[in-house]
Amino acid sequence: MDERIIRFIKALRSAGVRVSLAESADAFRAIEALGVSSRQVFRTSLAATLVKEAVDQPKFEELFGLFFSVGEEPSLTDLANELSSGEMKQLQEALEKYNRERLRKLLERLVDGEGLSEQELTELAQQVGLDSAEGLRFRDWMAQRMARALGFDALRHVLAELIEALEKAGMTAERAQEVRDLLAGNREALFEQMRKFAGQRIAEQMSEARPDEGQDGLMNRPFNALSEREVELLRKETRRLANALRTRIALRQKRARSGGLDAKATIRANLKHDAVPIDLRHHDRVLKPKLVAICDISTSMRSCSEFMLGLLYALQGQISKTQAFAFIDHLEYISPDFNEQQAANLAVEQVMYRLPSGHYNTDLGNSLQNFYDDYLNMLDNRTTLIVVGDGRNNYNNPRLDLFRQLKRRARKVIWLNPEPQSQWRQGDSDMAGYAPLCDHVFQVGNMAELTSAVDRLLV
Fold it and tell me: Please, what sign has the CA dihedral across residues 10, 117, 82, 156?
């Protein structure tokens, strides 16, 4: 049991639930004190010691059911026990026309109420690549693939044909429908068996996953190499990173609140001191910038843009105003999607419904045209324009002419690109054309580089 609990805790960590060594020890002490004779007490002991946030409770419940499931496999009904010998003969005769081996074997399995053996489940798992699934979100999809490999796709049509054949053979419509319901029930029980197997297999794989690299490791891992679990961990870190940035930026702004030295005002103020500059005067300085962020949320850029937007919207106390846009093949104004109650990733998820990603459909040039036509008045001499993207345009017109005009209107233009400069002239990249028009171009291939870039652009 101890080994099973250890594997369960490892799976929780792999799913993104934070469980410290001290909390693991607390779980074992709770179990030692309360025992395992009551499943409910056992579950409550683990939940109370391992789960700290309400958002993690569903992950706990799902994994607990997979690691500590009780009861038998989903039950199947042997139709020989439900039908008369004459009805079974009619059913067997109706099945004779199905001579495809896989389909015939599946139908006979449903009639006999025979479940899948461990070896059969393992073979199906190997066929569909179950061992490559990362995370329980793939459980139902993998179960569906296993069912398809077993021949489930043809069953709905076949069961309807069987009912018709049984009625032609003299079985009443009501009785034929009962036979269909029994077969359909066995089909659902088989699918549930595969679903349970897939979930348990994935949970076991999660418990065997390599341990987390630690936060420093994740901060330096390239965005395109992050697993979904690691993306989830970094999402949780975004607010902490934003808090650290907010403190540093606020202190910097406080120190610089007076701006640069105003020589003329200083001379005038110190005439009473015979022009000895005892009382220094400074220019007023606008400390909080206005930002316009245009973010590529195509598949290759989504994580980078999501984290960028999350940081910006967590830093609103140090920013006068942020206007956010997202694009793939056209521009969408997304500031209304963000609010204090909604995380940046959820807002981006909403935008994705309006901007479905496709193959090679990114068009920054068209998106710049959309901005120029509809939102040009958002740029002025106090506005910093930020573009988050890899500069890849699928050989569409990059519209450098429009970008040059945006540059003239903005206070400064900053580009955040996850690709190194060595890739700017490869393939469909137009970055070599955009870069000379920018005040700064920062490489932001990971969270550490992105955080540093945000810190620097708010100077």
Answer: positive
In a domain, 116, yes or no: yes
Query: Residue 125: CB partners within 8 Å, gap ≥ 6?
Result: 131, 142, 146, 197, 198, 201
* Residue appearing with tokens 């002025």: 380
Asked whether residue 218 is assigned to any structural domain, the reply reads no
Residue with tokens 């005769």: 93
Domains in the chain, number: 4
Contact 139, 195 (CB under 8 A): yes
Residues 343 and 388 in one domain: yes
Query: What are the counts of helices (DSSP H) followed by strands (DSSP E) for the chain?
Result: 19, 6
Distance of CA 330 to the CA centre of its chain: 23
Same domain, 413 and 331: yes
Packed helices 85-95 and 101-112: angle between N→C axes, nearest 10 degrees: 160
pTM: 0.51
Q: What is the pLDDT of residues 184-209, one digit of tens each?
A: 888 888 888 888 888 888 888 777 76
Q: Which tokens sit at 214?
A: 């630690």
Report the DSSP pairing between strands 383-388 and 290-296: parallel
Tell me which of 71, 102, 122 is where a domain ends: 71
Q: Which residues pair with 392 in a beta bridge?
A: 429
Please indicate, yes or no, if residue 212 is contained in any of the structural domains: no
Q: Write phi, then psi, for 278 (nearest 5 degrees).
A: -85, -40
Residue 62 per-residue DSSP state:
H
Mean predicted lDDT score pLDDT of the chain: 79
Sorting pLDDT into bands at 50, 70 and 90, what band is 24? confident
Longest dimension (CA), the chain: 122
Q: Which domain holds residue 91?
A: 79-206
List Cβ neighbours of 33 (8 Å cut-off, separation of 6 or more): none
